[in-house]
Amino acid sequence: GQQVEAYAGPHHQRASRLRFERAPQLRRAVDHVSQALVLSRRTGRMASEAVQLGNRGNMWLLLGHLTEAAADGKAALQLYRKSGNRGGEAVVLSGLGIVGFYRGEYATAMEDSEQSLRISLEVGDRYGEAIALEAIALIHMAGTRADLALPLAEEAVRLARETGDQLTEAYALTVVGQAMRAAGDGPGAADR
């Protein structure tokens, strides 16, 4: 709804733009990844199957097909857990957190994003940590704890800069600005 759009900022704008501008290419990409998924299943390579499910889930998300994105994400998560791939598990949980956010299921989105953060910390994935922190800050902005968003978003900015992830840095800076505006420090946002 409108509340989600207000806080999703660049996430929503980027997803909307891609959904309309690149929908035909994304649909073809879903078809190709679906073929790759069939081949991965035939070979019995669980890791490849999990990757293909995660890729297809991301494409479904960009197309706005949240039910399909969640289904593929949950299937990939199950495979990553079965194989003990904690890094893959964290990546998929982050994606599921974003799906939950867009569905307005903030409690589920927070649970998935916090779990992604815990695993990213456990395996030492600073990139994944930045993404999870930015998502958690975003969810706080849409929920009842906007006061918690600013320090989390600022930490996400720091980590994104440390890892060279400019896209996550941009998203996190947007959340920093929104959090500062919500706290009444609109001019301070420009200093970031």
Question: How do the SSEs run, as a string of H and E?
Answer: HHHHHHHHHHH
Major beta sheet, specifics? none
The best one-word shape is globular
Low confidence ranges? 1-10
Terminal Cα span: 29 Å
Radius of gyration: 17 Å
Q: Which structural category fits the helices and strands?
A: mainly alpha
The tally of beta strands, per DSSP, is 0
Strand content: under 5%
Helix fraction, binned, reads over 70%
On the 0 to 100 scale, the average pLDDT is: 85
Provide a quick synopsis of the model.
This protein has 11 helices and no strands. It has 192 residues and is mostly helical.
Topology:
Layout: H1 2-8, H2 10-21, H3 23-43, H4 46-63, H5 66-83, H6 86-103, H7 106-123, H8 126-142, H9 149-163, H10 166-182, H11 186-189
Helix pairs in contact: 1-8, 3-4, 4-5, 4-6, 5-6, 6-7, 6-8, 7-8, 8-9, 8-10, 9-10
